[in-house]
């Protein structure tokens, strides 16, 4: 479940919040769909670095290539050359459910008689264990232990039963719960669908000759020369084929609950949601934080790169000098994985180095996007002091992360979240800062576009109910999640009532 799948072989999580996955799909019969997908995946690479994969539909069948590693490591020119077709999907993974290996990489294939489908998923399904067991009892084989393969197999199972792929998708949506943005192809058509709360992002775009693309973020549209059309709506199923684009309701939309951590950290700053770039959102968060927790310092610096827009906003709001005080080694992966605390600390030092020329003799204030375990903050505060800073103040441009995520983000369990275990003053002492402050939830909400959000990691209010059996594993004793809509738990008894 929300345990740290990315480190399963090593036993411990690295720093706090980690990426999700990136998904992309294209329907463009007269273009090089595999190369378009390749470029889009490179734009989405920040969302997952465990594995990458592309599936292409060539009118007759579906071909897939996937492997562990970055997009550039998995695909050589000749691989793309060999994958010609009219429709394609791609995926880059940071695992949240199931093991880390090749079998878990996406897209996942599923055969329905002689029709092959390939599915790519961003998100986590909270009830996949039960569904997987039911499918296994029904004789359905599995290659991996991931939630995403359960969705692929369910769609195969129900499509077989109903003879219609869209009915198969709809039936599957009725059974799965959690966060999902999914793209799927068969040999001649592209499908895209999204969970009814819209927890995970998915946007629709158009190429200049009217062909269609879908992607996790608008930065992938920009890179392939597509223009943004609209979001895939919560609960919607889109089908794109020679017959054009067909939209239908897979499930009635529920209360919109977009992941607010896309705004805080996950999405690229140049991506846009609800008309506002994530750069601007983060800049505003920094300015709001400056109003809530100002400080008298000589220099504001960011914890690069994800803290940069907020640090700029913080400095601008108070009219303080802003500079580069930490240099980031860009060849250290975003998700540094290490088995012990001392190796994690070494990982931070490998990634971030202080600029003594800039910070020595100054009162420094550092802005990061978030503090999760506190590993990064503790290290960089010490680095600043060693580099000669006379005062070191720390600010988090997001509220305190107190609750684990179950919908597609790889958070630590609650006992590993520093804010679940210590007061702000205790954290300040632990990281060794002269002052520490977090943006308030209210302040955060004033910076993001006006829509519905999931913000469970800050508030413990979960839009998709978390069943009781997970509590013991993931919450501190005495803590329980507040399920916002407890009546929305689906019946996963299997097979479902109708076989229409
Ligand atoms: O309190 P912690 O547990 O250290 O977690 C918080 C840090 O984790 C993330 O950075 P990360 O180094 O993962 O990636 P980034 O380089 O993209 O910021 C985030 O931007 C914070 O810097
Ligand atoms: N980060 C994600 O969105 C992961 C997708 C899926 N749960 C997997 O582990 O493969
Ligand atoms: S719990 Fe936090 S990280 Fe998870 S979906 Fe909700 S807002 Fe996003
Ligand atoms: Mg960081």
TrEMBL record:
Cofactor: Mg(2+); [4Fe-4S] cluster
Domain of life of the source: Bacteria
SUPFAM superfamilies per the UniProt record, alphabetical: N-terminal nucleophile aminohydrolases (Ntn hydrolases), PRTase-like
Record key words, sorted: 4Fe-4S, Glutamine amidotransferase, Glycosyltransferase, Iron, Iron-sulfur, Magnesium, Metal-binding, Purine biosynthesis, Transferase
Single GO BP term: 'de novo' IMP biosynthetic process
Residues engaged in binding [4Fe-4S] cluster: 259, 405, 454, 457
Catalytic activity as recorded in UniProt: 5-phospho-beta-D-ribosylamine + L-glutamate + diphosphate = 5-phospho-alpha-D-ribose 1-diphosphate + L-glutamine + H2O
GO molecular function, one term: magnesium ion binding
Record domain Glutamine amidotransferase type-2: where: 21-243
EC number: 2.4.2.14
UniProt-annotated catalytic positions: 21
One Pfam family hit: GATase_6
InterPro entries: GATase_2_dom, Ntn_hydrolases_N, PRTase-like, PRTase_dom, PurF, PurF_N
PROSITE patterns associated with the record: GATASE_TYPE_2 (PS51278)
Function text: Catalyzes the formation of phosphoribosylamine from phosphoribosylpyrophosphate (PRPP) and glutamine.
The protein's name in its UniProt record: Amidophosphoribosyltransferase
Protein species of origin: Olsenella porci
């Amino acid at each position: 479940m929300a345990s740290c799948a990315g480190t399963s072989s090593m036993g411990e999580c690295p720093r706090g919040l980690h990426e999700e996955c990136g998904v992309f799909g294209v329907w463009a019969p007269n273009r090089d769909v595999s190369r378009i997908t390749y470029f889009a995946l490179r734009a989405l690479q920040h969302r997952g670095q465990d594995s990458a994969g592309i599936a292409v539909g060539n009118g007759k069948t579906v071909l897939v290539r996937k492997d562990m590693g970055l997009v550039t490591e998995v695909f050589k020119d000749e691989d793309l050359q060999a994958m010609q077709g009219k429709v394609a999907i791609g995926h880059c993974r940071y695992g949240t459910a199931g093991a880390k290996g090749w079998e878990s990489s996406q897209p996942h294939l599923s055969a329905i008689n002689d029709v092959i489908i390939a599915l790519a998923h961003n998100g986590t399904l909270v009830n996949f264990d039960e569904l997987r067991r039911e499918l296994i009892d029904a004789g359905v084989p599995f290659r991996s232990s991931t939630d995403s393969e359960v969705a692929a197999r369910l769609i195969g199972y129900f499509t077989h039963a109903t003879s219609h792929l869209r009915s198969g998708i709809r039936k599957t949506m009725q059974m799965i719960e959690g966060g999902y943005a999914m793209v799927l192809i068969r040999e001649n058509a592209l499908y895209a669908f999204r969970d009814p709360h819209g927890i995970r992002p998915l946007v629709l775009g158009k190429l200049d000759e009217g062909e269609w693309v879908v992607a996790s973020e608008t930065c992938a549209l920009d890179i392939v020369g597509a223009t943004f059309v609209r979001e895939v709506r919560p609960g919607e199923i889109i089908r794109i084929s020679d017959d054009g684009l067909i939209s239908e309701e897979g499930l009635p939309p529920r209360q919109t609950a977009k992941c607010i951590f896309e705004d805080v950290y996950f999405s690229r700053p140049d991506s846009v949601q609800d008309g506002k770039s994530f750069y601007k959102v983060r800049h505003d968060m920094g300015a709001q934080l400056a109003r809530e927790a100002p400080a008298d310092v000589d220099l504001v610096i960011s914890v690069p790169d994800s803290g940069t827009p907020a640090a700029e906003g913080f400095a601008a709001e108070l009219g303080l000098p802003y500079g580069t005080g930490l240099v980031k080694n860009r060849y250290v992966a975003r998700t540094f994985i290490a088995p012990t605390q001392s190796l994690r600390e070494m990982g931070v030092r490998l990634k971030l180095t202080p600029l003594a020329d800039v910070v020595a003799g100054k009162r420094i204030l550092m802005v990061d996007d978030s503090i999760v375990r506190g590993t990064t903050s503790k290290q960089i505060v010490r680095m600043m002091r060693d580099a000669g800073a006379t005062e070191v103040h720390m600010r988090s441009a997001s509220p305190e992360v107190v609750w684990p995520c179950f919908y597609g983000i790889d958070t630590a369990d609650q006992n590993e979240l520093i804010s679940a275990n210590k007061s702000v003053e205790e954290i300040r002492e632990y990281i060794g800062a002269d002052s520490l402050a977090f943006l308030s939830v209210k302040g955060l909400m004033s910076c993001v576009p006006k829509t519905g959000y999931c913000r469970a990691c800050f508030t413990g209010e979960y839009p998709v109910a978390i069943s009781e059996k997970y509590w013991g594993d993931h919450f501190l004793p005495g803590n329980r999640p507040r399920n916002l809509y407890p009546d929305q738990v689906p019946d996963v008894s299997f097979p479902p009532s109708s076989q229409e």
